[in-house]
């Protein structure tokens, strides 16, 4: 489905660490942080061990705690909602926009207003099963997720969050290199979180970074990631509950090398996405990824198509697999994950747009080193798979390939 792009220069940087005496808490993390902050145009970047760790710390710093509400998307990787649960807060889901697949800003505005109003208005946003003693109240934070690299509608979300006193934490884990109205995704809210798992636009193996414009928050992140030590990281002096969310030097070195090539890595993915776009243009049974006007640059994370209603997706996946092409339904909604159904009583029908999108999406193999021939191979296999899987007489229009 994906493949990292590691260069000899990246490997040399990792070797440099391995030949040094500092494998953790050394200069590579600092170099990575300085260059990441500069790239994002933000004063502070704090490296952490994963995107999930970054989201957790961003919520702690936002003051989220037991019983608080955090408004977020059900169409995401599970970590964006789990982060609220780590602090005993309640993820309050709002349905998504059908083109961007990101949070619907009008839904966010209504949810924030209703949560603040409390009572029956608030109850309409809450799950059937709520934690014991849960009393509700205004949302503490909103986590817009920039799904598949496309930034959420940040201006209206920021405006309604400000109106209702909630902080916006951007989950930019999938939006490395993306821009919203000319500004980097992740640099627009109170904090922005990126993750560098190997399927991302750039990787560290495992790793993440939080960016913020607030010095006190950055200091708090540094303490929290390092077992709650005080600001000078004094030996074994712990002033708050902290975690081991440190990034090691090898990962930071790989990240530094990747960051220095990020524009090339993003451009390669743009080329592959354009190749898919062109070749899929004639296939009626397929809707290509949508763009919204506010997305001025997209750092492609995955290439996800939608299959026409009535297409047997499982049959398409099986037929593709038989031709040696992996594909994945992507994402299954968070609220319908077994753990969320069980704990919160969610059911099918709770978030109709998310579910409709989720039932029809299919991620195709995608990474920056794919050749045009490989894209051709995937698209040919997809055409054959659609012919076999679609019951209608002539489901696939003759394309202009
Ligand atoms: C939207 C989203 N949020 C959070 C994460 C978590 O990042 P990590 O895997 O680095 O913990 C991911 C990672 O895949 C993601 O896609």
Uncertain spans, ≥5 residues at pLDDT below 50? Answer: 392-401
Topology order in helix (H) and strand (E) letters: HHEHEHEHHEHEEEEEHHHEEEHHHEH
E-strand count: 13
Order of adjacent strands in the largest pleated sheet: 1-9-8-5-4-2-3
Mean pLDDT across residues: 94
Beta-strand content estimate: 5-15%
Bulk shape: globular
Helical fraction: 25-40%
Largest sheet: 7 strands, mixed
SSE-based structural type? alpha/beta
Radius of gyration: 22 Å
Distance between the termini: 23 Å
| Discrete helix count | 14
Q: Which ions and ligands are bound to the chains?
A: pyridoxal-5'-phosphate
Task: For this entry, give a set of tags.
about 400 residues; alpha/beta; seven-stranded mixed sheet; three-stranded antiparallel sheet; 14 helices; disordered C terminus; binds pyridoxal-5'-phosphate
Topology:
Blueprint: H1 8-18, H2 27-40, E1 44-48, H3 51-61, E2 69-72, H4 79-86, E3 90-93, H5 105-117, H6 119-123, E4 139-143, H7 154-163, E5 167-171, E6 179-180, E7 183-184, E8 191-195, E9 208-212, H8 215-225, H9 249-260, H10 262-280, E10 286-287, E11 295-297, E12 303-307, H11 313-322, H12 338-344, H13 352-360, E13 361-364, H14 372-389
Helix pairs in contact: 1-9, 2-9, 3-4, 3-8, 5-7, 10-14, 11-14
This protein binds pyridoxal-5'-phosphate.
């Amino acid at each position: 489905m994906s493949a990292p792009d590691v260069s000899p220069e990246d490997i040399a940087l990792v070797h440099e660490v391995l030949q040094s005496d500092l494998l953790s808490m050394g200069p590579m993390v600092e170099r990575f942080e300085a260059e990441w902050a500069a790239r994002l145009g933000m004063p502070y970047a704090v490296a952490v061990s994963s995107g999930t760790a970054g989201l957790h710390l961003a919520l702690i710093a936002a003051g989220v705690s037991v019983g608080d509400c955090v408004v977020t998307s059900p169409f995401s990787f599970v970590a964006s909602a789990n982060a609220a649960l780590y602090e005993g807060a309640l993820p309050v889901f709002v349905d998504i926009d059908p083109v961007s697949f990101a949070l619907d800003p009008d839904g966010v505005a209504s949810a924030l207003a209703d949560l603040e109003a409390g009572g029956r208005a608030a109850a309409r946003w809450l799950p059937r099963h709520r934690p014991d003693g849960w009393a509700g109240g205004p949302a503490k934070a909103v986590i817009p997720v920039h799904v598949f690299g496309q930034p959420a509608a940040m201006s209206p979300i920021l405006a309604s969050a400000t109106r209702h006193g909630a902080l916006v934490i951007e989950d930019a884990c999938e939006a490395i290199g993306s821009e919203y109205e000319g500004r980097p995704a992740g640099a627009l809210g109170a904090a922005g979180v990126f993750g560098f798992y190997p399927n991302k636009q750039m990787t560290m193996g495992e790793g993440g970074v939080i960016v913020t414009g607030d010095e006190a928050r950055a200091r708090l992140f540094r303490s929290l990631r390092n077992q709650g030590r005080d600001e000078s990281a004094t030996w074994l002096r712990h002033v708050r509950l902290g975690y081991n969310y440190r990034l090691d030097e090898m990962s930071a070195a790989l990240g530094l090398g990747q960051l220095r090539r990020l524009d090339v890595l993003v451009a390669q993915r743009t080329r592959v996405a354009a190749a898919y776009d062109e070749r899929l243009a004639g296939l009626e049974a397929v809707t290509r990824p949508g763009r919204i006007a506010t997305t001025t640059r997209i750092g492609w994370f995955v290439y996800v198509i939608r299959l026409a209603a009535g297409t047997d997706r499982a049959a398409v996946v099986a037929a593709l697999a038989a031709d040696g092409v992996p594909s994945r339904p992507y994402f299954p909604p968070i609220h319908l994950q077994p753990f969320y159904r069980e704990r919160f009583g969610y059911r099918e029908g709770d978030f109709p747009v998310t579910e409709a999108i989720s039932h029809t999406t299919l991620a195709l193999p995608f990474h920056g080193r794919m050749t045009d021939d490989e894209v051709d191979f995937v698209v040919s296999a997809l055409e054959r798979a659609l012919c076999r899987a679609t019951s209608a007489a002539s489901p696939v229009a003759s394309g202009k390939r």
